[in-house]
């Protein structure tokens, strides 16, 4: 679980109890960005595709978005090689 002082201040100390995030960026103007890197455990159980596991992760994603977070998901395979990963995680502002 990540510490987000804005959410704690607005909703109380238990506000983030069910949220698990890989990376949380707290940006100016109270912008909050979550970066998720999804490995096999995000869509499979015991090495086999699982619609239930996938649905649970999508529910968590919706909960984060409805709570004011911007969420970016990457498949772990996308980030294995630095040369392939770099263009996926950089952008011009």
Chart the SSEs and their pairings.
Elements lengths: L4 H7 L11 E5 L3 E8 L5 E2 L2 E2 L1 H16 L3 E6 L6 H8 L4
Parallel strand pairs: 2-5
Antiparallel strand pairs: 1-2, 3-4
Whole-number count of domains: 1
Major pleated sheet = 3 strands, mixed
Q: Order the strands across the largest sheet as they lie in space.
A: 1-2-5
**Relative strand content:** 15-25%
Gap between N and C termini, in Å?
29 Å
Specify the number of helices. 3
Shape: flat
Name the helix and strand elements from N-terminus to C-terminus, one letter apiece.
HEEEEHEH
Query: Please, what is the average pLDDT?
Result: 77
What is the radius of gyration computed over CA atoms, rounded to a whole number of angstroms? 15 Å
Low-pLDDT sequence parts: none
By DSSP, the count of extended strands is: 5
Approximate helicity band:
25-40%
Specify the structural class.
Answer: alpha+beta
Structural account:
- With 93 residues, the chain is α+β, with helices and mostly antiparallel strands.
- It has one domain.
- Helices cover 33% and strands 25% of the residues.
- It contains three helices and five strands; from the N terminus they run H-E-E-E-E-H-E-H.
- The strands form two sheets. A three-stranded mixed sheet has the order 1-2-5, with helices on one face.
- The model has no long low-confidence stretch (mean pLDDT 77).
């Amino acid at each position: 679980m990540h510490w987000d002082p804005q959410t704690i201040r607005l909703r109380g100390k238990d506000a983030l109890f069910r949220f698990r995030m890989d990376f949380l960026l707290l940006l100016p103007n109270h912008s909050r960005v979550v970066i998720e890197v999804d490995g096999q455990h995000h869509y499979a159980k015991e090495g086999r595709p699982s619609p239930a596991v996938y649905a649970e992760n999508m529910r968590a994603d919706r909960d984060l978005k409805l709570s004011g977070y911007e969420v970016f998901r990457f498949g772990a395979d996308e980030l294995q090689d630095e040369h392939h990963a770099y263009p996926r995680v950089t952008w011009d502002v």
